Task: structure prediction
Amino acid sequence: MDNLTSALEGAAVTSFAAETIATRKSQYKSHRAVVDQASRRSQMLKRQREERQDRMNSLRDLVDLDDAAANAVEPEDNDAAMVDDSDAKTGIEPADSMSTAADKPKPKRANSVFKRHMMLAEVMFEAVDDWSEWSCVPCPVGKRVLIVSSKGRTKAFPHYQAVHTFDSLLPAGGNGSYRAKDYCVLDAIFDQVNNVYWVVDILCWKGTPVVETDFECRTFWLNSKLSEEPGLMETTNQKYAFRPLPRCESTPDGIQAAVTAPRPWHLDGLLFFHNEGFYEAGTCPLALWLEYGHIQPALEMKIDPKPTD
Result:
């Protein structure tokens, strides 16, 4: 009798323990949770593919629109149209934007292209918390443009004025042989004094988009690709050169060097890019603009009182 009682008690404990464990497992690993998690993964992958496809389509649309936009405005190779527009570095329109149509041309197509594809910086009102997460890009006085090379021509889309069309040594940007898919898209500042497009950032190179890579990766890609193209950085065999703007660490010494280092242009201000930020069209908080005259008070540091030549 005692043996039978002990056996029944052991079976009851074992049954209770097994039931408890099963219940606990069901709370953490239910069939519904597995289905929901798989569904969420599938939805996330789908959303990422769609967003990537949207960005790809956006770049392709820019290349396809490029001819129509250039034909809608005049003139080609018009250097006079490439004047200073430093406010285009941010999402703020210049003060004279209320001028009449007779005062300056306003081709809506070019303006629309610029705004839809260009990443514009927010004005920096206060120093960031962790400067180690940011890179500094000194910028010359000039016109911010979106460069598109495709179908044997190169076009510069400015903020408010006519599309500028010319030949260049960019892939698919001149009269030489090219493949239809070898189009390039660059973010640049036109320096009319030196006939140089100083490249701020890169969106696409030979049909490969890089807008979904971080700033440090895009910087490496930009420097390596521009240096690989023979003659691209010089004006020997083309009217305009394409050169990358320097990058500096966002430290007191780095910013000091960015402001005071000898340059072949006048300093307009500093662009700050978050190292992990993607290239996002429109006004983006991961890009900050600090005009030259505001550098010292905003960053509370002493600098050379005159921009370098």
In short: The mean pLDDT is 75. The first helix runs from residue 2 to 28.
